[in-house]
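Components:
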Amino acid sequence: MPGSRPDNIRDAYQTIRDQEPWTHPNSSISHHRILPFSTLAPWLDDKEFIKIYEKVKLNTLVDIYRCYELWYLAKQLTNVQGSILEVGVWRGGTGAILAKAAKANGKKVFLADTFEGVVKAGSMDTSYIGGEHADTSETMVKDLMESLLIPNYSVLTGIFPEETSHLVETPIAMLHCDVDVYSSAKDVVEWCLPHLTVGGIIVFDDYGFLGCEGITVFCQELQKRQDLVFIHNINGHAIFIKVAVI
Ligand SMILES: C[S@@+](CC[C@H](N)C(=O)[O-])C[C@H]1O[C@@H](n2cnc3c(N)ncnc32)[C@H](O)[C@@H]1O
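Structure:
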């Protein structure tokens, strides 16, 4: 029998439940405010995570729930062969979390960004037009890594995969795809899948967010594949685990 909750979750839930769902004006995909009943918060007890998160939180657009998921997934990859690749680095926040987690299991992290903002926005995308998130630089990311004494990373500057994929050490154990738009994500994943180790994972940052419907649609397409298992985490992540070679 569960203990009593110290908050008014049921009232909050009822208020949210009674709200109408909504869609982006350019899409028919439904959105609704999500409020799980669960309260377990393991990130608060993970001192190593909290220490790095506090140092990078101003360098990331990603909330603590997704940051903790990236941290914990990267920590679990000891027996999955390969590097970690992040495409979509911006100011380096999630990249630093991945690299710090991966240091313990001897993995290298490749951090790929144009540093000139989002590319390949198109008709599948509802909000992005291209050039967003250009307010960063390679130097900003390298300075962050240096300040955190993180050595196990390489920055790849340019459009991925066309301009920088030849610099990635394969196989890949984990891809963090945070590129915001359909065509970019498709090109990144099509390059990555043949290099992804069985047991390896792909995390899409943008799956569950209004304005990122291009990524939601691309993930719906990937869900049809027989070599991937799909998990929708209601923090907004889509996670795919490679389970077979086809
Ligand atoms: C939302 S930001 C990444 C956020 C970051 N992970 C964080 O911790 O806040 C998206 C980034 O993807 C980059 N980007 C999008 N498509 C790309 C591509 N094909 N190759 C390289 N960078 C890309 C953009 O330049 C932008 O910096």
